[in-house]
Amino acid sequence: MMTPEQVLAAHKANVETLFGLTHKAFEGVEKLVELNMQVAKTALAETADTTKAMLSVKDAQELLALQAGLLQPSAEKAAAYSRHVYDIAAATNAEVTKVAEEQMADMQKKFMAVVDTMVKNAPAGTENAVALVKSAVAAANNAYESVHKAAKQAAEVAEANFQAVTSTAVKATQGAAKAKRAA
């Protein structure tokens, strides 16, 4: 049984963790807002440059060349933007995951301390029940580890797929831009 001081300390630690996670979430949002502001400024400047370039076009062939020249950088910028958004989300998720793992490890440690105390104070003849509790705790820990490993592997596969799709999209756009220029 926990003392009132232990309960208060646990609540205090939980509140600190909550504020820490909230701070990390806001940092991620701030980075996204900063990225979006930078993209908006750049897009506005590029739109102005493109408009000026289009107004100075003298014939259809020059217009086609201008359009072909715009296609590749746009796709690369879109891919770069997606990558930045993904990186921000992944970094924020990593921070949250780290805190969650630390909390889980701390909870497991405290729970095991309670189980150990109960085992030491268990009356004679309850060895089978104690063994059953220890076995259940070990099975729960193993299940958690398995799920955690599977989640990490899934995240790694998702990242690899994201990288592959981004790379393929940029290469396809580059190929299309080269083909247009050659035409």
Give a quick rundown of the structure.
With 183 residues, this protein is an all-alpha fold.
Write the layout of secondary structure elements.
Blueprint: H1 4-55, H2 60-120, H3 127-182
Helix pairs in contact: 1-2, 2-3
Task: Give a structural overview.
The model has no long low-confidence stretch (mean pLDDT 81). The protein is elongated. It is mainly alpha-helical. It is 92% helix and 0% strand. Helix 1 (4-55) packs antiparallel against helix 2 (60-120) and helix 2 runs antiparallel to helix 3 (127-182). It has one domain (4-182). The protein contains 3 helices and no strands.
Provide key terms for this protein.
about 90% helix; about 180 residues; elongated
Oligomer: single chain
The structural class is mainly alpha
The coarse silhouette is elongated
Number of strands: 0
Q: Using only CA atoms, what is the Rg?
A: 28 Å
Tally the structural domains. 1
Count of DSSP H/I helices:
3
Helicity range: over 70%
Low-confidence stretches: none
Q: The biggest beta sheet, please?
A: none
Average pLDDT score: 81
Q: Strand percentage, roughly?
A: under 5%
**First-residue to last-residue Cα separation:** 80 Å
Order of helices and strands: HHH
